[in-house]
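W.,

You were right to be curious about this one. When I first looked at the sequence I had no strong expectations either way, so I just let the prediction run and decided to look at it fresh. Below is the sequence, 139 residues in total, followed by the output.
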Amino acid sequence: MKPRISMVTLGVADIARSVRFYQDGLGFPLKDATPEVAFFSLNGSWLGLYGREPLAADAAVPAEGKGFSGVALAHNVASESEVKEVLTQAVAAGAVLTKPAQKTAWGGYHGYFKDPDGHLWEVAHNPFFWIGPEDVSAG
């Protein structure tokens, strides 16, 4: 297996609500959507939204479960001020702030939010870490 993640698919309760959160609230570019599934381009990978129940059935696992799933998605940014901006944007779009922006023990700056389905996102500035490919959609 080659070391990469092509797509992260989130099981969600309401596709339309989640599309509004990610497209309108966070500004993710929607590439394709039906009432059953939606895809966003993430500058080198993809975010998929699919119903929680059908996703669990497709993977042949139970759909029930609450609380921390053991997974946090990360969005790295170029500065501490951008961490605050993204967290503010997420909360304005309907996210729940779980940890406000703050200095870290490892020399960075971060905070966390949960999307409308409880999926955990870390927003971080790590001065020691590559934040990803250049945004080819800009300019």
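Here's what jumped out at me. The CA atoms of residues 70 and 120 lie 9 Å apart. And, maybe more interesting for your project: Strands lie at 7-12, 30-33, 37-41, 46-51, 73-76, 96-103, 109-114, 120-125.

Coffee later to discuss?

I.
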